[in-house]
Amino acid sequence: MLQPNWHPDDLAARLPALRRRQKLMAATRAFFFSRGFMEVETPYAVAAPGEEVHLRPFRVEHGEKPLWLHTSPEFAMKRLLVAGAGPIFQIARVWRDDAASPLHSAEFSMLEWYQPGASMAALMDTTQRYLRAVLPPMVSCRGVTTDLSRFDRLTVAEAFRRHVGADLLATADDAPALAAAAGVRLRHGEDWEDLFFRLLLDRIEPELGRDHPTFLTHWPTAQAALARRDPADPRVAERFELFICGIELGNAFVELTDAAEQRARFMADRARRHGLYGAGPPLDWKLDEDFLRALECGMPPCAGIAIGFDRLAMIAAGVHRIQDVLWLAEPR
Description:
The chain is an alpha+beta fold. The protein has nine helices and 14 strands.
């Protein structure tokens, strides 16, 4: 029988990993303070948790006005950028209503930072410097050893050519064409986006961030609702994901600052979410008009990244389960 995680023997087994987490937290703050970043704290309970299609927030009751536990501090931190607070970082508690797994807890910690004026390349450079500052040159986690001496940068289109054998951008919004190029059959009701993610999860992500960390860059615009379109190719957006030890660790954007385009993307995401999950509770929050007003006021050009801090602690400590780097977790 599994012991509860408050049991002295259970805590003793996890204590080395928890001490490594504590050192990681201290090193993280030292890294950003030394570079002139300000640490901020933003509300956890919000009136609108965002328009991500597949993220399910937790609802909390607050009188007659429902609130939601945020899935990311992103919108709040961007409001602070409008106010002139940047460069900023935050280590926040966030909540996502997904099933627990060795890599996911419904309540977890997220490191997020924003660099005004930064390009995607500059943000990747900062991310490399941060990871080399807080991790050893070689890390091992979940049976994969990764060498941080080099970081690979791979576009989504090139990843599909290399691992799927398909010209992704040439098949945009044409699910049968993408299926034919990939040599797979479309499933019942599967659209282009569904197939994109099936191929990404099945054929591409298992190959990323193994020998060396990998930045997967330049995502199709439809998969980057908060990122700016690439001026050199508007079919893709300036977004990247980061993989280390085969684990998806971070998600980053050169931020979209156009309020009208952001509103249009929100409405498209909202329509898709309602089509998939319905418009009633628990997915009935109002559009975040305050955030859109902030964009209209003027957010400076910037780039930002969110990193799963617990997953980073797993990599730093070399443990197999996210629960091993949590002081207390939900009962198993």
